[in-house]
Amino acid sequence: MTEAGPDVDVATELANAFMAHRPQLAGFLRAHMGSGLAGIDVEDVMQELWLRCCRTDTASISNPRSYLFRMGHNLVLNLAREAARARARDAEWGYVNNRDKDAVEMPSAERSLLASEQLALVDDTLLNVGHRAAGIFRRYRIDGVDQRRIAEEFGVSLSTVEKDLRKAYDALLALGSHRDEV
Fold first, then answer.
1. Which PANTHER family match (predicted)?
2. Threshold 0.85, pTM exceeds
3. CATH for 109-181?
């Protein structure tokens, strides 16, 4: 390659080198990105590198190919650092705001205890309407099974399933209104 002199447009020379070595450059970037940049596509990095090549205003570059690969390497390093900082920032934010890694608020001990007590009340209420009605309610509301299939499973008519569901709903509504009064 020729050395860029004062009369040669460096950006154009870099752009030409980019186009000439594009497949090798893409392979180089892919190999250096690794798993730390799993969410970033190589083509996005190539696009950023192309834009940087077009903006580069360096007086002299003796080896445009080498310069391109160094630019690509530095770009991948910057992206990896940025991704690491983002992960650390997200982890710190979650810790400070009492959230786990999926940004779900972690329940306090008091909330966990209250939820356990409420679940026990709901279980007791359902058992008070009868084992069959409680089982039908669980199959319908928790397991998502349709009423016809539940009727077949329990060996009862569809209207019996509907009546048992109504009993369970009424009992749970009464429990809810009782809790609201307290």
1. RNA POLYMERASE ECF-TYPE SIGMA FACTO, RNA POLYMERASE SIGMA FACTOR FECI-RELATED
2. no
3. 1.10.10.10
Which residue's entry shows tokens 């569809």? 158
Cβ atoms 72, 51 nearer than 8 A:
no
Q: How many residues are present in the chain?
A: 182
The domains of the chain are located at 10-96, 109-181
How many Å apart are CA 66 and CA 72, to the nearest integer? 10
Per-residue pLDDT reduced to its tens digit, 136-173: 999 999 899 999 999 999 999 999 999 999 999 999 99
Cα–Cα distance measured from residue 13 to residue 50, given in angstroms and rounded to the nearest whole number: 12
Q: How far apart are CA 94 and CA 115, in angstroms?
A: 23
| CATH number, domain 10-96, options 1.10.1740, 3.90.220, 1.20.1250, 3.90.1150 | 1.10.1740
